[in-house]
Inverse folding.
């Protein structure tokens, strides 16, 4: 991972050189070169070492990627910016690589184009890492939402091939990387070209394209409304956000036989219900509120308000966090004084399992929903026997119980982070917004959900450290962190 990060630094170095901005170019070039030298020397020294920890070792490496690697990623960023502390640069890189997108630099003019590109690029690589890690690391360990699924491990092979990969998990990692990385890259390029055709600046288009695919919400201009692609660009981004609702949108390897249809996938169906239902409720609320008022309604404004709601709901459900240019019209139309509560609820639900989205995940919500229906059925018919059902085959027998355990762990973690931030001097309402934003990896919530502006740069270093830990927890999930403390891992 450090070697890939070193190579990726040449991209902003070349871009800054083309723009005749030599100081940032040198920062990224020197950091990338020194990183490659160090990685090569360490690789030569440890090349003959046999890995001892198997898939759990890969999970530990994944944790180190989100917590330790940003120290290296922040070196060229800090050296090129030179107007902030190194800890602020580290915080920004943790935010980017975990696809949280919490913006510690609210003024986009403060960063050079190469730094904007680097932030979006780190977030994009973090999204690709989660795509790969979900299949290669979390699925074999039944983590990341796969603990709820029945026969949902991606990339199932023949018995002899599976046994070889269990013996050497690196083979599985390389195979899945070679399969998913081209898909991820091609989708990003297609969205980038679509945004450029819609009239967006190439740099803004590529940062938004990478942010949508990674669900990081990082922007070079402070958000979608400041762009120039308009509603056409928003529609293009909206269509690509579907890849964060369900893994079946780009791969069918988590479904059992005969259940690979997207319209039967519970995650996709719940996502569509929320994307359609919540905007309709906001839209109809205006008509109900104005039922006795004789006021003329602007049809164009109504459509824009409806679109602003649909785009923003989809964006926060997938934990991307982009706000539509028409979201202000949607707020005025609905008349809600606290729309941030709706957006926080959507971010907490999150997207699909084995996608780049954060949150609790739609499949766990579906498992809890099925369990609730079953319990109500037992109240009426205590002696009834539950059938599997055609739509429930993706959930294993104890899926609801495991989903409930995760939900409780998530709630306890949310409470602990909120109390820790409040103890460090943050007001309770802001602490709650910060905790939800970081644990759900939806950084733009910080700017939208709070009634009073939250300036991350003004927080103390201890509070920023708590937020960094919360972002890592939200990205890896609490169950994965607990798995690292199992006795089997340390005995090996």
């Amino acid at each position: 991972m450090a070697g890939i990060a070193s190579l990726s630094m040449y991209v902003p170095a070349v871009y800054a050189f083309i723009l005749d901005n030599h100081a940032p170019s040198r920062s990224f070039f020197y950091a990338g070169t020194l990183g490659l030298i160090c990685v090569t020397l360490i690789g030569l020294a440890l090349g003959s070492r046999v890995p001892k920890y198997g898939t759990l070792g890969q999970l530990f490496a994944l944790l180190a990627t989100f917590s330790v690697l940003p120290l290296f990623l922040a070196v060229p960023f800090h050296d090129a910016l030179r107007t902030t502390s190194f800890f602020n640069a580290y915080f920004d890189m943790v935010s980017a690589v975990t696809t949280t997108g919490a913006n510690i630099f609210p003024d986009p003019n403060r960063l050079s184009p190469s730094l904007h590109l680097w932030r979006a690029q780190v977030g994009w690589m973090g999204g690709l890492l989660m795509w790969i890690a979900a299949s290669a690391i979390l699925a074999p360990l039944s983590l990341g939402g796969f603990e709820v699924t029945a026969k949902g491990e991606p990339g199932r092979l023949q018995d002899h091939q599976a046994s070889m990969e269990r013996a050497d998990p690196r083979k599985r990692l390389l195979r899945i990387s070679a399969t998913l990385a081209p898909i991820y890259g091609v989708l990003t390029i297609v969205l980038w070209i679509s945004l450029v055709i819609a009239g967006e600046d190439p740099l803004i288009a590529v940062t938004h394209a990478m942010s949508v695919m990674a669900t990081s919400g990082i922007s070079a201009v402070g958000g979608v409304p400041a762009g120039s692609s308009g509603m056409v660009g928003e529609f293009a981004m909206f269509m690509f956000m579907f890849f964060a609702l369900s893994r079946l949108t780009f791969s069918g390897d988590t479904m059992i036989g005969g259940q690979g249809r997207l319209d039967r996938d519970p995650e996709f169906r719940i996502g569509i219900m929320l994307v359609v239902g919540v905007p309709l409720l906001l839209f109809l609320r205006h008509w109900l509120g104005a039922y006795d008022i004789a006021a003329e309604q602007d049809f164009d404004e109504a459509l824009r308000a409806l679109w602003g709601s649909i785009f923003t709901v989809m964006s926060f459900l997938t934990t991307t966090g982009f706000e539509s240019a028409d979201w202000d019209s949607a707020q005025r139309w609905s008349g809600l004084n606290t729309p941030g509560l709706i957006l926080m609820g959507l971010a907490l639900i999150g997207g699909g399992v084995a996608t780049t989205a954060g949150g609790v995940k739609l499949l766990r919500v579906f498992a809890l929903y099925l369990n609730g229906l079953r319990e109500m059925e037992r109240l009426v018919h205590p002696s009834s026997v539950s059938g599997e059902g055609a739509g429930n085959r993706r959930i294993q027998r104890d899926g609801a119980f495991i989903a409930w355990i995760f939900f409780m762990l998530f709630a306890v973690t949310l409470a602990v982070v909120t109390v820790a931030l409040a103890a460090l001097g943050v007001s309770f309402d802001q602490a709650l917004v910060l905790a939800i934003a970081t644990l759900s990896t939806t950084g733009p919530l910080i700017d939208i959900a709070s009634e009073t502006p939250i300036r991350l740069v003004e927080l103390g270093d201890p509070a920023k450290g708590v937020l960094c830990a919360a972002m890592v927890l939200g990205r890896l999930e609490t169950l994965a962190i607990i798995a690292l403390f199992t006795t089997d891992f340390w005995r090996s």
